[in-house]
């Protein structure tokens, strides 16, 4: 009888330990994928840099050269329950003979309100398309 009880306790302990290890692994994965900050850096002569920072401290950076930027737009997406406005870059295609354009959405993890998007849009337009004397805009969302 005592052997059966000890065996059950050992099985329960192993199951709890396995569940704990699984939860720790899931927590690490969640921290690795959770976005804490997105920033947009616009330099007139160079281009646009989008940096995404994750909760784990990892960062990813995307860069679009100024010569490949055709325009920056505010676009809207309609879902089943709401309308989402987002900022996007219209890129000139690498193959200039076909004149293909590619749409690159910005701030994919945060959805700033339309009034914030308008301010960002105006800043990018001023710097990138020389509608202002400013040569640098740095925008961050946390």
TrEMBL record:
Sorted keywords for this record are: Membrane, Transmembrane, Transmembrane helix
Q: What InterPro entries would the database entry show?
A: PIG-H, PIGH-H_dom
Its annotated pathway reads:
Glycolipid biosynthesis; glycosylphosphatidylinositol-anchor biosynthesis
Q: Where are the transmembrane segments?
A: 16-33
Tell me yes or no: is Transmembrane helix among this UniProt entry's keywords: yes
- Phosphatidylinositol N-acetylglucosaminyltransferase subunit H conserved domain spans which residues? 39-108
User: Is Membrane tagged as a keyword?
Assistant: yes
- Recorded superkingdom: Eukaryota
> According to its UniProt record, what is one Pfam family this protein matches?
PIG-H
What family classification does the UniProt entry report for this protein? Belongs to the PIGH family.
Official protein name in the record: Phosphatidylinositol N-acetylglucosaminyltransferase subunit H-like isoform X2
Q: What does the organism's lineage look like at the top? A: Eukaryota, Metazoa, Ecdysozoa, Scalidophora, Priapulida
């Amino acid at each position: 009888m005592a052997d059966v009880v000890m065996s059950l306790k050992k099985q329960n302990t192993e199951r709890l330990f396995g569940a704990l290890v699984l939860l720790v692994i899931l927590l690490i994965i969640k921290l690795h994928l959770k976005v804490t900050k997105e920033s947009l850096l616009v330099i007139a002569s160079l281009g646009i840099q989008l940096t995404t920072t994750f909760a784990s401290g990892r960062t990813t950076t995307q860069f679009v050269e100024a010569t490949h930027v055709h325009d920056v737009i505010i676009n809207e997406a309609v879902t089943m329950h709401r309308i989402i406005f987002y900022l996007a870059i219209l890129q000139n295609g690498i193959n200039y003979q076909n004149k293909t354009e590619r749409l690159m959405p910005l701030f994919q993890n945060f959805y700033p309100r339309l009034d914030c998007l308008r301010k960002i849009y105006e800043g990018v337009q001023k710097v990138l398309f020389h509608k202002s004397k400013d040569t640098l805009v740095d925008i961050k969302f946390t």
